[in-house]
Amino acid sequence: MSNANRTTPKNRTRAVDRLRALTVGTTLASVAAVGAFGAIAALSYSGSATANTADTGTSTTVTTATPSTISSSGASATATPTPAIRSTPTPATTSTGAGQVTTGGS
Q1: 66: closest CA among 51, 78, 74, 75?
Q2: Taking the model in full, what pTM does it have?
Q3: Taking a C-beta distance cutoff of 8 angstroms, is the pair 85, 62 a contact?
Q4: CA 91 → CA 49, 60, 95, distances in Å?
Q5: How do strand 76-77 and strand 69-70 relate by DSSP bridges?
Q6: What pLDDT does 25 receive?
Q7: CA 12 from chain center: how many Å?
Q8: What is the mean pLDDT of residues 15-24?
Q9: How far apart, in whole angstroms, are the C-alpha atoms of residue 70 and residue 77?
Q10: Which of 8, 13, 64, 65 has a beta carbon 3.0–4.6 Å from 79's, enabling a disulfide?
């Protein structure tokens, strides 16, 4: 087995400087590539200035009633959903306020 030559501080410094130069060069090349691909994507897809809405001619609205009574024993009375069918389309509306979404869990 042969002994490895000890590196001098000067050689270690050059190696670290070389590694830093490679890292900085790779970073700059990556940023430039992302910018170039973004520019190509922006130029090749112009998009649309207006929103398209689908008009099916009819819309169905389902309304449900809230439970009329709730007992403390755990049994409750609920109303049956009543569907209402409209023959004219209703425009899309927006709403503001807080919403809550709950998924899974126990």
Answers
A1: 78
A2: 0.39
A3: no
A4: 19, 13, 13
A5: antiparallel
A6: 98
A7: 46
A8: 97
A9: 6
A10: 65
